[in-house]
Write a structure and sequence with these properties.
The complex is a heterodimer.
Chain A lengths: L1 H9 L10 H9 L6 E7 L9 E13 L3 E11 L8 H15 L4 E7 L3 H9 L3 E2 H5 L1 E7 H8 L5
Chain B lengths: L3 E4 L5 H14 L10 H8 L7 E6 L12 E12 L3 E11 L8 H15 L4 E7 L3 H9 L3 E2 H5 L1 E7 H8 L2
Parallel strand pairs in B: 4-5
Antiparallel strand pairs in B: 1-2, 2-3, 3-4
Helix pairs in contact in B: 1-2
Classes of the chains: A alpha+beta, B alpha+beta.
């Protein structure tokens, strides 16, 4: 969980993380996984030390009815002290490979516009900003609104 | 007006493909559509579906002049938020023009909300084009909020040559 807390802190939104470790376990490793995860580990100085997790990515498969299967990158993080070593590129390479092997036509994700380092990281690698280029806006209904919408009509 | 909402099956793919094209034309991006009826059948109705569908149907007496009784649809799949957990993503929501304003869109999105809640989802996400005011107004009236505006989130994609390059193939 600490990696999530670190990422949330990075995006200055830690108060918005409500997901628990128990839910993560059930949702990713139960009968119907909602997501998949890859991790980057480095071996410690001594061979007796456990490898240390220094980066991870969370992804799942989505569908664009115009062009087909997509690999959706939900979360992608490398610990501060391990950046600039090619770990991030390695994770992206692994995921892009996986996307192609599973016949996805694209890899999609969301970036906060004020996150300059990430925006540049992705644009350098050929990512298109669909919000800017085509005008797509991401909308959300939270739990309370969902419950209201799901209720039978009064008409 | 009488209409019914139900889960889509394999036989609906012809009408889903037709309405996907109508929706793409409505948002002026028809040239982007590459998926065929056969792709939909394979990708949505095999052992490992990548999406699910809901169809809005009218009785025979209300069919269109071309003979269509399937007059609206929604496509959705399950997603995941690393902060809030299970989510449902509504990829498409469409009602044929002559059947709008009669509660069909509301009924379709209500069904998606029901299915999402039944699966333990905490949020419903989707995208809208910034110039599509009728759709934006409809969604905002149902109580959603614009994450791109409030949190600055932009939707990004890596495809084609950029994807190949990333994979270093």
């Amino acid at each position: 969980m600490s990696e999530y807390e670190e990422l949330a802190k990075y995006e200055e939104m830690e108060h918005q993380v409500t997901l628990t470790e128990k839910e993560l376990l059930e949702d990713g490793f139960g009968d119907t996984p909602f997501y998949h995860c890859i991790i980057t580990e480095i071996q410690g100085q001594n061979s007796s030390e456990d490898p240390k997790v220094v980066g991870f990515a969370m992804y799942y498969f989505t569908y664009d009815p115009w062009v087909g299967k997509q690999l959706y990158l939900e979360e992608f993080y490398v610990m501060d002290e391990y950046r600039g070593l090619g770990i991030g590129s390695g994770i992206l390479r692994h995921l892009s490979n996986l996307a192609m092997k599973t016949r996805c036509t694209g890899m999609m994700f969301v970036v906060a516009e004020n996150n300059e380092p990430s925006v540049q990281f992705y644009k350098r690698r050929g990512a298109e900003d669909l919000s800017q280029e085509e005008g797509w806006r991401l909308f959300r209904f939270d739990k309370d609104s969902l419950v209201k919408m799901a209720a039978p009509s009064e008409e | 007006m009488d209409f019914s909402i139900r889960e889509a099956n394999l036989d609906d793919c012809k009408d889903i493909a037709r309405m996907i094209m109508e929706l793409a034309e409505y948002v002026k991006l028809a040239e982007h559509v590459k998926v065929t009826q056969k792709d939909l059948e394979q990708d949505g109705f095999s052992n490992n579906p990548f999406f699910h569908g809901i169809i809005a149907e009218v009785p025979e007496q209300h069919k269109t002049k071309e003979g269509h009784t399937k007059i609206g649809y929604a496509l959705y799949f399950y997603a995941y938020s690393s902060w809030s957990g299970r989510a449902i993503y509504m990829e498409d929501l469409y009602v044929m023009p002559e059947f709008r304003g009669k509660g069909v869109g509301k009924a379709l999105i209500s069904k998606v909300a029901q299915l999402g809640l039944a699966a333990g989802c905490h949020q419903l996400n989707f995208t809208v084009l910034d110039w599509n005011k009728p759709s934006m107004d409809f969604y905002l009236s149902q109580g959603c909020f614009n994450i791109t505006a409030t949190m600055g989130y932009h939707c990004m994609r890596c495809e084609g040559e950029a994807l190949k390059h990333l994979a270093q193939l």
